[in-house]
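User: Let's play a game. I give you a shape written as tokens, and you guess the letters that built it. Ready? Here's round one.
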């Protein structure tokens, strides 16, 4: 009996020690050698989130209990990442006003758990139901301006095409962020995007799961942010982030166009690039251009080893991303003395929150 008791006590001590190690690892992962984190920016596809009536238009089997469970699971992710701002996709509603109301419910739940004020914002959409939005902790950042690009006409891959718009217009907010323990603010611009899905409904005439449509959206979005925020690409006085759901893997043509390594022109007429059956670019040698936007997730040596942000069957893809221009990257470094290591992460659990992982980056200046 005494020997058994000793074994039980030893097991408990080992368990406590292991638990402490895990907690310490989490603290070390989230700590910042540059000082207190100024802003944690998250991105999450909410997977058909809205009021019960709105969700039932897409998920007829939804119940009040399952919706509440999804909300609780989302809040657990937001708390684990310590999000100050969350860019969200798939907010279901008939119009932006109702989308904002639906999203504010998550903001209120966050406020209950953190005692911090959160305000929701939602943009117009060309989708009859799906909207983009943000949840912002107003004790850390104030929204000074917002703009939707839902009505921007996309560049054409082929001249004979009819004009097209974004499926869901990218939604931009400009934040004035308070510096921890000091006076003054810094401008941070977030552009939330959600490109066309790969679902073949309606059927894609090119039989490429709508990759050519995403290529046009990527070209349009890159041009927009470069023209509107040119200084972010030159001096970094304004921190710029593009984040959201690309709906294509990181090696597809639309991903390369969004980064600036390729342009839509590279695929037009007798240009040097064509597409593989899965939408990857096949180009003549020395075609690639210098990138204008960089993924802080895939550039980070720790985060890039995760399998991806979305799983279909047994295959993972990097559909969700956070991109920044070169001058802004220094504000996302894990350690300012080490280039190429960024304070980023991915959260997969609870799985009931969404079919997409949450991704985040921590900013410091």
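Assistant: Ready! My guess for every position:
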């Amino acid at each position: 009996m005494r020997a058994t008791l000793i074994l039980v006590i030893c097991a408990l001590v080992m368990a406590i020690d292991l638990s402490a190690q895990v907690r310490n690892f989490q603290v070390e992962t989230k700590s910042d050698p540059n000082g207190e984190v100024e802003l944690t920016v998250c991105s999450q596809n909410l997977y058909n989130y809205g009021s019960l009536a709105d969700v039932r238009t897409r998920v007829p089997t939804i119940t009040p209990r399952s919706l509440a469970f999804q909300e609780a699971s989302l809040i657990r992710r937001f708390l684990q990442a310590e999000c100050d701002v969350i860019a969200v996709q798939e907010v279901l509603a008939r119009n932006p006003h109702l989308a904002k109301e639906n999203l504010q419910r998550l903001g209120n739940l966050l406020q209950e758990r953190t005692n911090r004020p959160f305000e929701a914002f939602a943009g117009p959409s060309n989708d009859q139901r799906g909207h983009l939005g943000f949840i912002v902790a107003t004790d850390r950042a104030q929204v000074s301006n917002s703009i939707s690009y839902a009505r921007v006409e996309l560049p054409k891959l082929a001249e004979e095409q009819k004009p097209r718009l974004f499926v869901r217009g990218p939604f931009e907010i400009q934040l004035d962020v308070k510096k921890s323990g000091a006076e003054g603010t810094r401008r941070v611009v977030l552009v939330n995007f959600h490109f066309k899905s790969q679902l073949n409904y309606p059927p894609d005439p090119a039989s490429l799961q709508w990759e050519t449509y995403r290529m046009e959206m990527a070209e349009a979005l890159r041009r927009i942010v470069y023209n509107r925020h040119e200084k972010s690409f030159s001096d970094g006085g304004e921190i710029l982030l593009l984040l959201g759901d690309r709906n294509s893997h990181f090696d597809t043509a639309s991903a390369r166009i969004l980064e600036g390594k390729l342009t839509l022109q590279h695929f037009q007429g007798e240009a040097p690039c064509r597409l593989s059956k899965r939408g990857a670019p096949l180009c003549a040698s020395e075609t690639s251009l210098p990138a204008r936007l960089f993924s802080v997730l895939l550039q980070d040596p720790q985060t890039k080893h995760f399998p991806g942000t979305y799983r279909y069957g047994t295959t993972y893809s990097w559909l969700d991303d956070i991109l920044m221009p070169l001058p802004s990257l220094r504000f996302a470094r894990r350690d300012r003395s080490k280039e190429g290591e960024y304070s980023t992460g991915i959260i997969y659990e609870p799985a009931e929150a969404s079919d997409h992982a949450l991704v985040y980056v921590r900013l410091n200046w």
